[in-house]
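One-letter codes give the sequence; each number marks local geometry. A record appears below:


***
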Amino acid sequence: MRFLLDPEQRAFAASLDALLTAADTPAVIRDWSRGDHASGRALWSRAARAGVFALAVPEAYEGLGPRPVELAVAFVELGRHAVPGPLVETVTAAVLLTGADPGAAERLLPALASGETMATVAPEGAYALDGDAAALRLACTPDGIRLSPGHGPLRPSLDPARRLTPLTPGGELLGPPVEQALTWARLATAAQALGVGLALLDRTVGYVRQRTQFGVPVGSFQAVKHRLADAKTALEFARPLLFGAALSMRPAEVAAAKAAACEAAYATARTALHLHGAIGYTAEYGLGLWLTKARALRTAWGDPETCRALVVSAGDRRW
């Protein structure tokens, strides 16, 4: 089976790439890490006008979805440019609210689709991503999905652009838990990770072509070629898993795609840092904007072991 994007999907990816390239996302990421959300909100609005968040919102609530394949296309580009903010969480909130009380859905979903509102989601007692920036905070509790009235102090994060906060307990009960929301969260995370890995690979290939040693580019060394080929292979194997999972939206297939994409991105991050050498550690060079995101996405919404266990469990049930 071939998982090739059609011309419309490729054009959508190209338009997002152009939009995000023009936005100087490294500067946006650094602002976001300092708690300055102005440039990040402006970029969020531009992505929303391109239809990114509407892809997870049904047409009945002023969205374009649900369209998981197109959402995966969008999130690959968001990851490629390391766009900050509660991207996956807003998609997850849209899925949760679709299954909530119709009144709550009508009240809250249009603002998510238009980009007017950012959302974050976390299980009760866990830390939420960007609770200080999100206007809509949802806590997953044993009795259902609740609006959180606020958030606690910021907590340190592996990725400075992923700002973590506890959610204030209590709030309006919106509806029962929606199991499919976790599948959408993992799909978006997998796509984002694939984009991060592709960006790291592109930056590293460009660097080893320019850096010279013994009078030749270091990219001509066989050992360097092997490391880059391994990274490329892992990322390209993850790509059809991602889009195949987006077509089926079966939880086990999405979990497999997330494990593959996140592991490939993490391995590519290690290769990128190794081949860049000391410059890769410097804040000014900016490689770390992608390195830390690859590491954080690896465990977001289910670490590789959890995702693999789901795949194995699903295989056992089929037999």
Q: What stands out?
A: The radius of gyration is 19 Å. The chain has a mean pLDDT of 94. The longest strand covers residues 136-141.
